[in-house]
Amino acid sequence: MERLWQDLRYGFRMLWKSPGFTIVAVISLALGIGANTAIFSTLHAFLFSPLPVEQADRLVKMFTTDKNNPGNLPVSHWNFNDLRDKNDVFSGVTAYTFAGASMAAGNETTPVTIQVVAGNYFDVLGVKLHLGRGFLPDEDKTPGTNPVVVLSYGLWQRAFGGSPSIVNSTILLNRQPFTVIGIAAQDFEGTDLGGGIDMWAPMMMHDVLQPGFDFYNARRGLFLFPVARLKPGVTVQQAQAAMSALASNLEREYKNDNEGRSVKVVSLLQDRLDPGGTGQLLLISGLLMGIVGVVLLIACGNVANLLLARATKRQREVAIRLAIGANRSILIRQFITESLLLSLIGGIAGFLAAFWSRNLIASFLPFGAGTNDDNTPLNPTVLLFTITLSVVSGVIFGLAPAIQASNPDLVPTLKGESTIGAQRGFRINLRQVLVVLQVSLSLVSLVAAGLLVRSLQKAQEVDPGFRVDNMLMVGINVGAQGYKPEQGKVFYQQLTQRVRDLSGVKSATLAQNAPINGGGIARSVFLEGAAPTPGNRGVLVQLNVVGSKYFDTMGIPIVSGRDFADTDTETSPKAVIINEIMANRFWPSQDPIGKRFKFFGEDFYREVVGVAKNTKVNNLTEAGISYIYVPLTQNYSPAITLIVQTQSEPTSMVSPLRALVQSMDANIPVQNVRTLRERLTRSLGNQQQQSTLMTAAGILALLLAAVGLYGVMAYSVAQRTRELGIRLALGATKMDVLKLILGHGLLLVSIGIVVGLIASATLSQTIKGLLFGVNAADPITYVGTSLVLAVVALIASYIPARRATKVDALTALRTD
Questions:
Q1: Distances (CA, A) of 112 to 103, 143, 174, 793
Q2: Which residues lie closer than 8 Å to 496 by C-beta, 6 or more apart?
Q3: C-alpha distances in angstroms, 363 versus 36, 369, 457, 609, 761?
Q4: What confidence score (pLDDT) does residue 726 get?
Q5: How far apart are the first and last CA of the chain?
Q6: Which tens digits make up the pLDDT trace of 58-98?
Q7: How far apart are CA 681 and CA 690, in angstroms?
Q8: Could you say which of 482, 505, 563, 629 would form a disulfide bridge with 577 (CB–CB 3.0 to 4.6 Å)?
Q9: Structural domain boundaries in the chain
Q10: Are 670 and 476 in contact (CB under 8 A)?
């Protein structure tokens, strides 16, 4: 222990005597360790922090699988009831879905996000409430009889100032009184990644919270997400077998609704880590950790080079200690101790940097809103990670210099001749090998960032198929204010006309789903005259309900047929407009105008009156999909998006539009106000965040690699001062010296680029699932990043090379 304390004191003294070396090394390590800690802490908080539920590893989620439609689909209400009541593998089964509602608190009306849940939701999950209680079994048995809610901790703080008196008091949701019975725990916002839930309400209040939503009484309608708790001793595999058997029974019993459908059971924790089973979330997380790991390796390389250069200055000290009997293992231990001290100081600085930047980093991750806590926590696991990373880094960058520095040639060294880095092949090349690795690693990070940036650029260049500039969207929901369908129709008709009459408005229309990310529900389509399919299986096609002048306002051409007209009323034949993809899919080489089809559950056909040009529906990077437009005059929707084409900057119309809506009904909130351009930008938010983080990491890696190259070249010039003096004395020009030093630096960089290109070509295949419109072997990215790296390396090499040209020959020749 005494010996360790002596090593520490000696190490501190040596670092204190070399403040320049210490500062540069600590900054390099702080950047590398800080980047790793910040990313790890954020990923840990979002993905790996334990859910605030009882025995989360015993919870599973259930999905519907459909032979005709890929992916994990929700479950219908009636199927959920059977899964809950007819199983013998779960101790409890609950479910949830989502609703947007309007909350009146004081004089303000605020839109809120509600999870509509089965009455046993909190009991099955084993959630502890902060205040009050959860739902009672009787509060979810009779429709519309128990208007109670549990508030999230975040909403309680924001809207009610954290006052305990809100429990057992009344709030208005969609103009209906609800009693607040509890406040959820601070760290609970549901089981889905990202949270963002404002409150929970029992499922039997769905008529108030989801007006006009009629899927609760349809076995075919998929909208619920069941969560179940396994009985003791039951595995996920056993539960899957039991649910598959039960699904087969339901398929036989309700063939018309369930044929081709089954049930998939997935661990809740697995679903959080890999939503939808696509692997993208884990891929993004692994990519981020990999890139910041590269940054750390480059930082370690820099410190190792600094230690090697410092060892040159200390070789006489080491030789003397060895000559008087010091053990080599003691010297190695001393050097490792100094390296660990450096890494721990750098780790502390990196931890502080990660702590200060954690919320900024979290804002760039594609995981949603996070917890109710405004700050992403740095918990003990993160602190342990930082300490471990610091120790490992200290060993990595300190071991090779320690071994090399502790083994000088005693006689030449004691005579004052430099030996480290001047006699054996390994010693000559170690610093250069580190630089080559740094260059190659920085190129890997730059290529990854470049591919994501190029992918984002390609997505931004996509033509969505509709007008984007001078377009404003406003969300309105009269159903949330208790409007009956007839009242809502009159309100929307009057609103549209009054908006069109406003100064500064070119056109206005209504749509149930806003363009991009709105999408719309999918309905099963059955063509007139087509042979019946097994189990009455149709083809799912997304649809949108739109108002008059929708296509004119959006700038979507009608390529054949007609637009919707005032004559398309509730009593007239049902009209639809389809896009070109659907026309070619269902009626290839035929004129689709006049063709008819119906949706599942309907006893009437809808006639195709027009074909519209294709547009992007759900996102800008999707492949073309079939799409249907249905007129609002024949299909009333209580929740609508008002779309306004303005004559100038659209944000200038926000206040007039809000004032107009408030003048018609002061209780109707205007929500989700944004321009269409902003909506398109937001739709690429994940790609933007990923490319920003990766670019920042790539630039950091590039700068650290440049610093490493500069250090090696500066060291090389210092070591070759006598040689350069001799060359100048024998007639070499300054240009000859410049070429010599630059050539040495560019040789290292060239080798590093070649190695980096080979590594990038291999590793970039792992991220091809994140790319759009760009090949993982995109030549522009590879050539561009290589040129950037070469230019930066040239600058880093030029500075020491320029200094070498100023060597005075006489002074150099006198140097030992």
A1: 7, 22, 10, 53
A2: 508, 509, 510, 547, 548, 642
A3: 16, 8, 21, 46, 30
A4: 76
A5: 41
A6: 999 999 998 877 778 899 999 999 999 999 999 999 999 99
A7: 14
A8: 629
A9: 1-49+282-423, 69-259, 471-681
A10: yes
